[in-house]
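User: My instructor asked us to take a sequence, write out its structure as tokens, and then describe one feature of it. I'm not sure where to start. Here is the sequence I was given:
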Amino acid sequence: MADSISTTNEALSLFLKENTTSTHESLDKRIMSLNPFSALDRYTQFIRTQARLQQITSSWYQNAELQALFPDLSERDRFNAVQQDCRDLGLSAEEMAVDQEAAAQIQVSNNYEALGWLYTVEGSNIGAAILLKHAKESLGLSETHGARHLTGHGDGRGLYWRRFKEALDAIELTDEQRQQALKGARDAFAFTRNSVEELLAPNVENIA
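Assistant: Let's start with the prediction itself. The structure tokens for your sequence are:
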């Protein structure tokens, strides 16, 4: 993918992590402050934020050039699972159409930016273990109803994440391309934060 090798030896996954950690932590705290597991209707709004994010990245999971870099990429796509979660929870066709339109407004410019989006989405699988636990204990949901997209891989979330990072770090990028990947990661976090504020935040009292 690259025209020349980056001047830094820092792994791309570490570079992205170091430059998005504060944003990531802020987003996680904001989501939990909005009590997405306090009631089914609140969780449904959270699922809508995930459906929007997964729709944006779904086409990149099916991208032939990226699949050559990540051999198991297509099987990592969780868009169909989150869509089924939406149906499990009784989301209306109108609401799903609104979410599809919101996602369609986002244009990822190139494969390098897509790497940043994929890094963000794949990284969320680690935290999804805690979310799945909350969904089960607080709302009675499961890997086969309402929380499908939170399900971990059979080989374990940690190993599955490490495999992704190893493939990501093996890609040779120029410094400019690394910056584009970082832009993609930051855009993914920003889009998710905006969706959270739009869908989860309204009419919530005593928000931290």
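For the description part of your assignment, you could build on this observation: The first helix runs from residue 12 to 18. Try explaining in your own words what that tells you about the chain.
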